[in-house]
Write a structure and sequence with these properties.
two-stranded antiparallel ribbon, mainly alpha, 264 residues, 73% helix
């Protein structure tokens, strides 16, 4: 196992070095991503600043949800970007090349085209700092929220990776999965940036059971920001992350065993 992860680290470094060969493209891409990310949160901030709070959730609390989701997604997409782009490998036959490599296919896929996402990282970190500082100043939380938040970001990244991996595995049967990914990843993550209490019960159930993105930020925040349920909630989320990862890996292996080459 250590041998595979050492090899994965080498491939990651190689991918990053290849991307840094085009520094101007990297800088422009970072600036554009920064503007998009800032615009997204500013829209939320303007609305909440107008009305003060939504369903009892303040601007700082919504900022916290936004930041945790952003940082979890950044962590996932940095180290497993091409899991989200498996469709390209299936339609072009590039996956066949990964099958010939002397390492697990998933690790080979994850080491392809590693994305550096400094804009998302800086923006998410800035919003998180602002949110935590505001909540601490108001006396709502203490410094203990910081380690709990770091754990929530890590477990959130695991959950998002598991959702992305399971969605990608569907491609072994459907091949074309872009529209499905729009639902399971893009749309669901955007919805979970807001408090789930805003949505009808059927949609809350969908975001907690069918696609468990609500466990990335909303569920941990109930304890971290509001002290509800107790510390066991964070441990339960970590256990859930391990379970969904295990299920996703099992589904991935099953799908890979059914893979048929495009013949191209």
């Amino acid at each position: 196992m250590k041998h595979w992860f050492d090899l994965y680290a080498v491939l990651i470094r190689s991918s990053i070095q290849s991307r840094m060969q085009y520094r101007m493209n990297f800088v422009l891409g970072t600036l554009l991503a920064s503007l998009i990310q800032i615009a997204e949160f500013l829209m939320i901030a303007i609305i909440l600043n107008k009305f003060g709070a939504v369903k009892g959730w303040s601007l700082h609390e919504v900022g916290y949800l936004f930041a945790v989701m952003t940082l979890s997604k950044t962590l996932y997409r940095t180290f497993a970007s091409d899991v989200h782009h498996l469709e390209r490998y299936l339609t072009t036959g590039e996956l066949d090349q990964l099958l010939t490599r002397p390492m697990p296919v998933l690790l080979a896929l994850m080491s392809q085209n590693v994305r550096l996402m400094p804009a998302e990282l800086l923006q998410g970190s800035a919003v998180l700092y602002w949110s935590l500082h505001g909540l601490m100043s108001a006396g709502q939380i203490t410094w203990t929220a910081v380690p709990y938040t770091l754990l929530a970001i890590i477990t959130g990244a695991v959950i998002l990776f598991a959702i992305g991996l399971a969605t990608a595995a569907v491609g072994f049967w459907m091949t074309r999965i872009n529209e499905l990914q729009t639902l399971t990843e893009d749309a669901s993550q955007t919805a979970a940036r807001y408090p789930l209490v805003l949505y009808p019960s059927w949609l809350r159930s969908f975001l907690l059971v069918a696609i468990p993105v609500g466990f990335v930020n909303y569920v941990p925040s109930l304890f971290i920001l509001r002290g509800e349920y107790g510390p066991w909630l964070i441990l339960a989320v970590a256990l859930l992350a391990a379970c969904v990862l295990g299920l996703a890996l099992t589904f991935w292996k099953f799908g890979l065993s059914r893979y048929q080459s495009t013949g191209s």
